[in-house]
Amino acid sequence: MRLFRNRIKRAQLEGKKNRMGTALIILAAGKGTRMKSDLPKVLHQVAGAPLLEHAMRAGQALDPDRIVVVAGHGAEKVEHCAKAFNDEAEVVLQTEQLGTGHAVQQAQAALAGHDGDTIVLYGDTPFISSETLTRMIAARTDHDIVVLGFDAADPGRYGRLVTKGETLERIVEFKDASESERAINFCNSGVIAARSATLFDLLSEVSNNNASGEYYLTDIIGIARERGLSASAVRCSEAETMGINSRAELAVAEKTFQDHARATAFENGVTLTAPETVYFAFDTVIGRDTVVEPYVFFGPGATVESGARIRAFSHLEGCHVAQGAIIGPYARLRPGAELAENTRVGNFVEIKNATIDAGAKVNHLSYIGDAHLGEATNVGAGTITCNYDGVSKHHTDVGSNVFIGSNTMLVAPVSIGDNAMTASGAVITKDVPAEALAIARAQQVNKPELARKLFDSLRRTANLKKKKAS
Ligand code: UD1
Ligand code: MG
Fold first, then answer.
1. Active site annotation includes 364
2. Within-domain flag for 468
3. Cβ–ligand 1 contact at 106 (below 6 Å)
4. Which of 430, 436, 357, 429 is nearest to 400 (CA)?
5. Which ligand 1 atom minimizes the distance to the CA of 124?
6. How many other C-beta atoms are found inside a 10 Å radius of the C-beta of residue 223?
7. Are residues 196 and 260 in the same domain?
8. Mean of the pLDDT values across residues 251-270?
9. What pLDDT, in 10s, does the model give residues 172-227?
10. 169 and 264 in one domain?
11. 470 part of a folded domain
């Protein structure tokens, strides 16, 4: 039965692979020497996601049938990253980096049978938008090859797009360009779209007879024109085409992303009191009328609903904050923190994998992990869920309207019933029934006048020592 099901699934996949559609080739074999890093360049992060993932995400909007990542340096790590984002992505190896044309050729076998368009992206260029890629695919209706170009403020070493009216005649690399060609500031972003068969057919004619001794992908334009095929360029802003080659450029990319994310937050009705100090991840979502105070950091996977307040110096990732909640200052919400309406999480409080129901408060110096807090429960200062026994994690369940006394240790697994209380300083190792008060600490003993006597004796000893020393 299972064999049969697998066969059907495989047939469905094959069917999907063979219909007309778009394929993505993402070039990611380069070493990125200028990064001076043990990590492949495309795995360095902007806004909490690897560069490669940004490129894959943009391409995802085209609903590609196939995704082929061309890896070389650090191929295993690159493969891991690509598959983590989309487990249908195929990773092919380019053992020697002989040029962008050669790199694209490495994807040919993986795209066998693909009859639609292929779009080539670079893994180190994170800001190409889905809209731009969609425009390129639309332009393919009228042209055999579509290249993404941009007007460069400083064309530097980019390949130049040689056009005649609407037609793109060829692309000339800086090293091979004449003086007049170098004067062109319409440049090649590197993104190219063509029908798969056309792309590989043209590539088979590309040689490495040029100033770099490389197989240039860009040469396919001239070859196509000689054959009477049509080519055109779609324009995008220079900011979209930014490629990352060094740590300095990575920092510029981060800043570019953050400036854009802050502007988007304003447009969505979010108040940022000191926008330049707030950092967003690629997927941060913040609702209207939420206020984000200075120095707040959002890691991946954070969603904040409308009308919440994230106070200064808080750090949030993998969490959800509902309407009207107030977080911080100095709060840390880790993955799995799920905060309902009007909850309060105060200073030096860490919440991980825990659901906090509406109106519950954890205001000071606490760790709440692997737990559930019921509605309107109040957790006193210094409370800790002791969730880890050194081997496994355990759950703590606290009911609604509970009062957890300051400095309570909740030794998991443990549960506290509704309307219960724990005495401050309690170490709770057994379940507490609803409405009960749990006291679990040493009895207090008062010794009359003993403090004064002790102080006297201590002072006498200290004075004797001082006299001896002088
Ligand atoms: C390339 C273009 C140039 C364009 C510029 C935009 C060519 C010949 N030139 O030049 O027209 O203006 O990008 O940034 O295409 N790669 C591989 N394997 C290789 C070579 C490159 O995977 O053998 C990858 C790199 O990792 C990188 C991308 O392809 O992600 C571009 O390669 P790079 O060497 O930076 O090309 P440029 O010389 O900048
Ligand atoms: Mg480059």
1. yes
2. no
3. no
4. 357
5. 30
6. 17
7. no
8. 98
9. 999 999 999 999 999 999 999 999 999 999 999 999 999 999 999 999 999 999 99
10. no
11. no
pLDDT reading at 466 higher than 90: yes
**325 and 267 within one domain:** yes
466 occurs within a structural domain: no
User: What CATH number corresponds to the domain at position 124?
Assistant: 3.90.550.10
Reduce the DSSP state of residue 145 to 3 states and report it: strand
Atom of ligand 1 minimally distant from the CA of 214: 8
**Structural domain span for residue 28:** 9-241
- Measured in angstroms, how far is the CA atom of residue 243 from the centroid of ligand 2? 7
pLDDT score, position 20: 74
| pTM of this prediction exceeds 0.70 | yes
Q: Are residues 165 and 282 in the same domain?
A: no
Query: Is 443 contained in some domain?
Result: no
CA distance 403 to 406: 9
Marked catalytic residue, from 44, 143, 364, 395: 364
Q: Is the CB of 216 under 6 A from ligand 1?
A: yes
pLDDT tens, 42-58?
A: 999 999 999 999 999 99
Residues 6+ apart with CB under 8 A from 155: 174, 182, 184, 185, 187
Nearest-CA residue for ligand 1 atom 1 is 190
Q: Verify that 217 and 257 share a domain, yes or no.
A: no
Number of domains in the chain: 2
Q: How confident is the model at residue 270 (pLDDT cuts 50, 70, 90)?
A: very high
Confidence band, pLDDT 50/70/90 cuts, at residue 12: very low
Question: Which residues have a Cβ under 8 Å from the Cβ of 443 and sit 6 or more positions away?
Answer: none
Bridging pattern class, strands 160-164 and 167-172: antiparallel
Would you say the CB of residue 159 lies under 6 angstroms from ligand 1?
Answer: yes
363 and 279 assigned to the same domain:
yes
